[in-house]
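Dear Dr. H.,

I hope your travels went smoothly. While you were away I took the liberty of generating a structure for the chain from your last submission, since the lab meeting agenda had it listed for discussion. I wanted you to have the full record in hand beforehand rather than looking at slides cold. The sequence, exactly as received, is reproduced here:
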Amino acid sequence: MSNLSAAHFHDEEKAYEYVEARLWAQGAVCPHCGAMDRVGKLNGKTTRIGLWKCYECRKPFTVKIGTIFEDSKVPMRLWLQAMYLIAGSKKGISSNQLHRVLGVTLKTAWFMSHRIREAMRDTDMGLFGGDGGEVQADETYIGRIEEKAPKARGAAHKMRVVSLLDKRTGKTRSIYAPGMVANEISSIVRENVSRESILVTDEVRAYRKVGKEMIEHRTVFHGVGNYLSPQGSSTNALEGYFSIFKRGMRGVYQFCSEKHLHRYLAEFDFRYSNRAALGVEDTERADRLLSGVIGKRLTYETTGARA
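The corresponding predicted structure, in token form, is as follows:
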């Protein structure tokens, strides 16, 4: 049986129950006053699905308040379908494809996609590495900055990204680095990597100074055809992540503006950090995504949206 045959993907009441069970694991919580004891579900014939009432502050509420679902008219079952599809698509799924699969308008599909990417954003910004663990660091260029493209030379019109990979956990973290200069790269490493780590990079000079602040800095000299440091370390895992990221951005999304790049980075980081190789299958990955919907609303207009 297909995973998409599950009841919560097709029945609206089951969809609300599914979300409530995961976001309110300890029981329903009033988002207005925080009460848990004096709340009750309303079950009248004309009552909309998923409506609760708090008897402390006397206000109605649903599990959607304070999440990416708030003020959305899209049925909860379609939200869950979209989240499952995005979480399970290794290189992403375009808004046009969601529009066709879910039967919503293109603007709605685009807005849903960006809300879901926002839910993928990691709010636990703890340091990578520590206790002598290896952290790979590398940089890449993607897409173009439209206002610079007509007259820029080389990679000057490209968007720049620095990514880190914690070898111990297998997780990645990618940060937009508009300048891609030594001080900026060093600051990204300092802010995200424990000093008690082994930093593994290629021969780019920008890592030399910050590498001295770690317990060890191992360098792979790609320029002369080496793919292992003298100590046997490499940046191959991070190169593999970049391969997935670039194939998704070029083959699926095709275009990404500088304004939204951070959300696409969050999407690819989330899927890679919760991949099957780490024991996380599609259903669990979608549930982990669902746990990130709280407190991440987006309210901007969708005019001019692209995939």
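Two observations you may find useful: The longest strand covers residues 134-142. Residues 301-307 have pLDDT under 50 and may be disordered.

With kind regards,
E. W.
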